[in-house]
Structures are given as structure tokens and as C-alpha cells.
Amino acid sequence: MTSPHVIIVGAGPGGLASALQLAKAGARVTILEKQSWVGGRTATFEQDGFRFDIGPTFFLYPRVLSEIFHSAGFDLMAEIPMRRLDPQYRISFAAGGKIDATPDLVAMEQQISAFSPGDRGAITRYINDNRKKLERFRPVLESPFNGPLDLLAPSVLGALPSLKPWRSLGQELSSYFKDPRLAIAFSFQAKYLGMSPFKCPSLFSILSFLEYEHGVFHPLGGCGYNTFVFDALILTAGTFVIADRTKNTLTKQATWFWLECPVVDGFGILDLAARPRANGIGRRQGDFD
Description:
Layout: E1 5-9, H1 13-24, E2 28-32, E3 44-47, E4 50-53, E5 59-60, H2 63-71, H3 76-79, E6 82-84, E7 89-92, E8 98-101, H4 105-115, H5 122-141, H6 154-159, H7 169-174, H8 180-185, H9 206-214, E9 216-219, H10 224-237, E10 240-243, E11 255-258, E12 263-272, E13 275-283, E14 286-288
Parallel strand pairs: 1-2, 2-11, 10-11
Antiparallel strand pairs: 3-4, 5-9, 6-9, 7-8, 12-13, 13-14
């Protein structure tokens, strides 16, 4: 039986994770990437002998990536050694005061009590409530939505009471912390999404919760090291080729990376069992099908 041929547009973290799992499953994989490098937001650049991440500089909630690696037969922490940071970072306020954010909740309670006595016990309430919120929303966040009826799934309906769509993240945090500086300290993570905490939905109070509950990690070698490891594991998970137009290199294997290959459009969209499918991909250098 001929192996299925899968075309992935973009060699960012999502594209590389998909390629790893598909290659391990025996598919022929072609990855199209418009840049001359792979990694997307987790790529790096080098200058004066030093390597710099161009995007994220630390890593949150490794469980998802750990499951992806496990599905392909690898151990995340063995392949990408990470160090959990403690303290995670220091927050300094223009109005005065600082907090060394630590996953040690006893130490955090002591800092907050000294910083704002009226907020004693607030972080414990916040952590407990958001632990329950994540438990309700995790099945929703990790489920595909292929049609309108998926919005009526029991997991979605069960999570609705915790959604509070009328409340912003800033308002949600202000319901826990009397001192506005503390509300800011637990809401700035909305910037990870490119949003203001005063406009971001209250659901995303789980972001700062994830930091304190599951940790902030530094991959040794930087976040860009993840990209290097993904490439290497795709090599071992399936057969591998890199087709680099700048170097004119090509070997006869099953998984292809095409670099500097912008995608123009998909074509031949069919409706097969209500699941859209593209028969081919249009490129500036010609079509794949």
C-alpha cells in the first residue's frame, strides 16, 4: 500500500510537530517554508558567536509537547533538557515594590502579605479557582472544532459557567487582588497573546496559573534548540531530505523540507464526508499534488 503524501505549510512549531508524528506513522511528508530557515517563532539567529531566540525565551506547560514526543517514541526531557526557573522572574513596579515570582506558594503568600496586607490569602484563592477552571476547560482547549455542532458538546456546555464572557482578564484579577499592582502582576501574560489584559477574555487567567502550577522552563540552548531537536527527530522518525534551493541540495528520501518556498494558494478543494481536502498546493516555483 502506498504511503499517504501529506503537505504541511509552514515549518514552525506546529508544522514540525505534525511532521514528526506523520513521519513516525509512515507518511510521506513535504514541508513548505517561505523562509530560508525552519522554526517559525522559535527560530534563532547568530551574531558575534552568540545565538539568540527571535521569539519566546522560555517555555510553559510542557505536558502538551511531552505528549507529542511520546506519541513518536521520544522523551521530551531527554531530548530537550529544561531547567525549571525559581524565581520565574522579578516584577518591579514604577509605583514602588517588587515581587520575585516563585512557584513556592508559601513564599508568594509571604511576599504578597508584606507587599499588600489586604491581599493575604488572595493568591491561594486564585490558584485553587483556576485549577478548577483549567480542569473544566482543558477538554475544550484540546478538542477540534470541525463544525457548529461541536460548540454544543457536553465538555463545552459544562465549561460555560466558568467562561464569564462579560468580564475582562483585568476585571477577573481585580476580583481577587485589591492592590491594582497585583492585578497587573497576574494579568500581563495576556501580552503572550498580543492582547491587553483590559480587553482579553477572563478565561485567560489560566495563563499565569500555568506558570505557578506547572512552571516556567528554560530549554538549555534556548527555545530555538527545540527546532534543532525537532529536525533531528524527524530524521530518525522517518526518512528525511532537505531540499534547499539556496544550496541546490536534494537527496532521495521520503520527508522533504522546501525552504524559501512561499505558498500562493490551495486548489482542488473537495468536500469528502464533510471534511475539506486540498488536492494540491500552489507555489511560486510550481504546484504540488
